[in-house]
Amino acid sequence: MTTHDLINPATGAAFGSVEHVDAAAVDDAVGRAQAAQRRWVRSAPAARASALRDFAAAVDAHVDELAALEVSNAGHPVSAAEWEAGHVRDVLQFYAASPERLSGQQIPVAGGLDVTFHEPLGVVGIITPWNFPMPIAAWGFAPALAAGNAVLIKPAEWTPLTTIRLAELAVHAGLDPDLLQVLPGPGAEVGERLVTHPGVAKVVFTGSTVTGTRVLAAAAPGVKRVTLELGGKSANIVFADCDLEQAAATAPYGVFDNAGQDCCARSRILVQASVYDRFMELLEPAVAGVVVGDPASRDTEMGPLVSRPHWEKVASYVPDDAPVAFRGRAPDGPGFWFPPTVLTPARDDRCVTEEIFGPVVTVLPFEDEADAVALANDTVYGLSGSIWTDDLSRALRMSRAVEAGNLSVNSHSSVRFNTPFGGFKQSGLGRELGPDAPLAFTDTKNVFIAVKEK
Ligand code: NDP
Q1: 188 in contact with ligand 1, CB cutoff 6 A
Q2: Which intervals hold domain Aldehyde dehydrogenase (predicted)?
Q3: Minimal CA–CA distance to 192: which of 178, 205, 179?
């Protein structure tokens, strides 16, 4: 085992450390998870439902503690971190109903009885990123456990603390300690071993498209089930016929939430040319009003970036000669602070085409609906987006034309646990959340039972 220092992004100072496991520990964890899964799936559906409700209750009782960990470890504003911990509780409660509801079909056939069963896959590996450690872990482990699987999670190296604590709370609530295990360590060693281990039946990966394609290739020889939630470069499309004040006032929250470290960030604002100047006049004070500062303060709306290397990546998109329209305020260092930044670049600039994953947004004018669709879809990504218009027919036309898995009209809403979430194109493969999520952690078995004629 090696020890890895943890850095507080708001101060740049080390505040703790975590023990990393190695590939051999993954092998050991898979064996124990397989045994725990067999015990779990043999228990009564009502007992599994009750265990997940108890887990939800344990999370609920520790929302403040979990939030405080995320403030220190990821720099999330405390109000956002509390919402994230509460979201884990809600996701667990939602999927706690599934063990007693996951039923197959009886299919009419000649000569007997035909039924289907949704069999759990066995052991599921979940690899999470550093931007939303708690929600993204729960989107995987809650439906996977509900469907009768055991789960191994490899959290991002920078932000493992809340995932470790959630697994402790599961044990505290009465779950078998081997049913939900956390394996902190480097992606290249621990993550890869999880993906290639023959005892892991499915991998759920959230992170960059580059690493996602590596995971997909590594999973292929074992014909593993894979769900990928990858990057985004989502459009916020503002038509002249919308409530322009509302569109401008909310645009910062559509992109600067979590300091822009959000795969659903609406990082390309597209504005109809006839209202472009007025929109920019309205956007400037809205951006200036974003409260950036101490994540522990309840007034804070935006914290620091997660790490020094990530700060450097984001800063590379805003060189001295960048087309900056205006910027908000941010504290000076130490800490990985970056001000909300609005750019007005050319259509083919790399800040328009590449995922920045920071508080940087581009604004481009468009002429008409066809131009808006062409611009919105001119990306390898297809995760999210917003359409602002008061014309219902236009809203529906645009909703069908924009290539993305999750769109909102006159809103920046992205993720609700009871609706499906996932990407088109290179933003991902498969869907998470929604009522059918547990099915993605099962294989369907068909059984025909011949009935003798008398
Ligand atoms: P990665 O995709 O590299 O990391 C995500 C997770 O995958 C981490 O837990 C990481 O571990 C793990 N991992 C890394 N390599 C492997 C591997 N070979 N096999 C299995 N698991 C692996 O993202 P980064 O943290 O490097 O971020 C880079 C960029 O990705 C960001 O700037 C952003 O653009 C994008 N991103 C997108 C996210 C999204 O939600 N769509 C989330 C995070 C990042 P480890 O922590 O050890 O590297």
Answers
A1: yes
A2: 4-447
A3: 205
